[in-house]
Specification:
Blueprint (H helix, E strand, L loop, with lengths): L1 H19 L11 H7 L7 E3 L13 E5 L7 E7 L5 E5 L2 E7 L2 E8 L9 E5 L4 H7 L5 E5 L2 E6 L2 E3 L2 E5 L5 E5 L11 E6 L11
Antiparallel strand pairs: 1-13, 2-3, 3-7, 4-5, 5-6, 6-7, 7-12, 8-9, 9-10, 11-12, 11-13
Bound molecules: 2-acetamido-2-deoxy-beta-D-glucopyranose (3 copies).
Keywords: Signal
């Protein structure tokens, strides 16, 4: 049990190192506006929270990131990412754009299947059978200015919590019902400060 946790953490650490040294995902696409032409409204999602600007951990902002090798499904997570992934909203769905052939949905899962714990943000489907069981289907994503909101029924959520999941890895969670901030978690809002604006109807 302990060994497997250590192995997982080692894997995650090596993935983080791989991210830091990863080559840019957009070979052959040289400017921000040409990416915007390819995918209207595409953006990094900067995470603003209590450990945001002004922290001593330097100039790399926190970004919505994915806990997996590039292009593969994984749980959403937040860290100071030198090479953050790209996202866009189309018809109230949020997508992660890896390349022209790999575009993954960003979805909310009732992953703990208990009413006490919050919902988890997951990118793509690793195990479609499991995913179908826990997927929250009614949700929608939208921009409020630069800020991302998750909406479900009558609730509209701007706040996401970075917490340890059941494996001890950092995941991203949210509440659609009013609830006190979960202990040991860090609240963040997510922003599209650099959203490509050159094409309408994103
Ligand atoms: C897109 O990314 C996937 C996963 O990394 C890779 O297998 C595929 O070859 C890439 N496709 C293109 C068009 O670059
Ligand atoms: C996401 O996190 C859950 C724990 O909440 C874990 O069971 C699951 O395996 C993770 N999914 C992926 C794709 O890593
Ligand atoms: C998650 O699933 C449990 C069990 O089915 C349910 O009681 C709870 O209301 C669900 N939570 C949300 C926020 O949908």
């Amino acid at each position: 049990m302990f060994t497997s946790l250590v192995e997982k953490l080692t894997l995650v650490l090596s993935l983080c190192v791989a991210f830091v040294y990863a080559v840019p995902a957009f070979e052959g696409i040289s400017t921000w506006s040409s990416i915007g032409n390819l995918v209207p409204g595409i953006t990094f999602l900067e995470a603003i929270g209590p450990e945001g600007a002004g922290s001593d951990t330097a100039n790399i902002p926190n970004y919505l990131s994915i806990l997996s090798p590039r292009g593969l499904p994984g749980n959403a997570t937040i860290y100071r990412n030198r090479s953050p992934p790209l996202f866009y909203i189309h018809q109230n769905n949020l997508w992660h754009f890896h390349n022209e052939s790999t575009i993954l949905p960003v979805q909310v899962h009732n992953s703990t299947l208990t009413s006490k714990l919050p919902l988890q943000v997951v990118v793509g489907e690793k195990d479609p059978k499991l995913a179908r069981r826990t997927l929250v289907k009614e949700g929608q994503w939208r921009w409020q200015g630069t800020m991302l909101r998750y909406e479900q029924g009558s609730s509209s959520v701007p706040l996401f919590y970075s917490c340890q999941d059941t494996n001890g890895l950092m995941g991203l969670f949210l509440f659609t019902e009013p609830a006190p901030p979960p202990g040991g978690c860090t609240p963040f809002t997510l922003h599209s400060f650099n959203r490509a604006k050159n094409i309408p109807n994103s």
